[in-house]
Amino acid sequence: LGVTYAAAGRDTQAANVWRTAMAGPDDLPQLYLWLGDALMRLKSSGEARPIFEEAMARFPADERFARPLALLYATFGKGLDAVRLLEKSLAARQDDQPSLFLAVEWIFDAHRGGAVVHDRAEDTRLAHQYAAQYLKAGGPNEPLVKQWLNYLDKEPQ
């Protein structure tokens, strides 16, 4: 029923159905994903975040929760945590063009803001790796990605 509501664009009703289903004995990872995605479509980030955090805690091997939680963490100003989760997501899906772009951007943003994710050398290495994968996947924003890499390369180690 929840999937039917979501397909019809009725995310509020879909979310209610999935919340009810989660209260039952069958606690499935897919329910967390569906509920979290519906809440994100409803722009209810504050409600979606704990759903994805609980899913990550309950199903740590399931990488499907890493990217949406990374996006939520970035929204809430938890940039370093967002990058680390995005890295986990990219370990499973190395051809995810939008996530590869975000990874390079977020590493650049962290450094521009005076923070580091791992250390400067490792962050620069990862940014280059993600950029190469992004461009190999046909990423359209090559000039911008190269600008970010240039900034990271010139940063004092």
Helical percentage: over 70%
Q: Between the first and last Cα atoms, what is the distance in angstroms?
A: 54 Å
Number of helices: 9
Runs in which pLDDT lies below 50 for 5 or more consecutive residues are none
Radius of gyration, in Å, reads: 18 Å
Strand content: under 5%
Largest sheet: none
Q: Which structural category fits the helices and strands? A: mainly alpha
Number of strands: 0
Order of helices and strands: HHHHHHHHH
The coarse silhouette is elongated
Mean pLDDT: 92
Q: How would you characterize the overall build of this protein?
A:
It contains nine helices and no strands. The protein is mainly α. Helix 3 (29-41) packs antiparallel against helix 4 (45-58) and helix 5 packs antiparallel against helix 6 (79-92).
Gist of the model:
The chain contains nine helices and no strands. By secondary structure, the protein is mainly alpha-helical.
What layout of secondary structure does this protein have?
Layout: H1 2-7, H2 11-22, H3 29-41, H4 45-58, H5 66-75, H6 79-92, H7 97-112, H8 120-136, H9 142-154
Helix pairs in contact: 2-3, 3-4, 4-5, 5-6, 6-7, 7-8, 7-9, 8-9
List the main descriptive attributes of the protein structure presented here.
157 residues; mainly alpha; 73% helix
